[in-house]
Amino acid sequence: MTDLKLLALDTEDLEVISAHVQDAVVRVADMGYARADRRFALLMNRFDWNSGKTRRDKGVRKRAALHFDSVQSVVTSGYDPAAAEGVLELLAITFKPIDGPAGIIELSFAGGGTVRLGVECLEARLSDLGGAWAAAAKPAHSLD
User: Fold this and answer.
1) pLDDT (tens digit per residue) in 34-88
2) Domain ranges of the chain
3) CA distance 89 to 114
4) Nearest residue to 24 (alpha-carbon basis) of 102, 87, 104, 97
5) CB 72 within 8 A of CB 58
6) Which residues pair with 48 in a beta bridge?
7) pTM, whole model, 2 decimals?
8) Which one of 14, 76, 107, 128 counts the least CB within 10 Å of its CB?
9) What is the DSSP string of 3-23?
10) How far is CA 139 from the centre of its chain?
11) 11 burial level (CB within 10 Å; 0-12, 13-18, 19+)
12) 64: which residues sit within 8 A by CB, 6+ positions away?
């Protein structure tokens, strides 16, 4: 299996990263903002949608890191950021331009939790960290 290394500099690139991290599991303690570096980073166990091609195969999870640069502000809602052992399921990442290259990156989690990043410009990097294991279950979503 090949490890992913992706860079997003525009909305289309971010959509690719969002697709690869859909249904990733993130511990609250594994997310953080380094104000001095203007970087927001998170570690996750992402579901590898490119594995598990058969109906019986439950797929693979991989350890991955995602970070955003040029971050000016971070606003969280819908979950307790102090709950270090809390676990969130990442559903999607979107970007809304505001002024030129600046805008808001939104990480949306199951149950309504969000992280909104005010950024000078869109720059995101996703990297698999090498660890991979059989998933306990394949994520499924209701179409209703």
Assistant:
1) 999 999 999 999 988 777 554 456 778 899 999 999 999 999 999 999 898 999 9
2) 5-134
3) 11
4) 87
5) no
6) 60
7) 0.88
8) 76
9) PPEEEESSHHHHHHHHHHHTT
10) 15
11) middle
12) 4, 21, 24, 43, 44, 45, 46, 126, 127, 128, 129
